[in-house]
Amino acid sequence: MNRHERAFRRLVRLYPAGFRARYEDQMVGLFADQLRDSKTSGSSLAVTKLWVHTLIDLVTTAPEQHLRKDGPVLQPVEPANAPATGTRSPLQSVAVVIASVPVPLWIVLWILAPGFVEPVFLNPPAMLGLPAGVVIIAFAGVLATFGWLLARRARTVGIALGAVAFLTIPALLLIMVTPALILIIVNVAGAT
Amino acid sequence: MPGDRPTLTTAALHILVAIGPGERHGYAIMSEVEQLTNGALRLAPGTLYTTIKRLLSAGLLEETGDRPDPHLDDQRRRYYRLTPGGRAMVASEVRRLDAVVSSARPWAIDGGDH
Question: Of A4, A175, A191, B63, which residue is most buried, by most CB within 10 angstroms?
Answer without folding.
Answer: A175
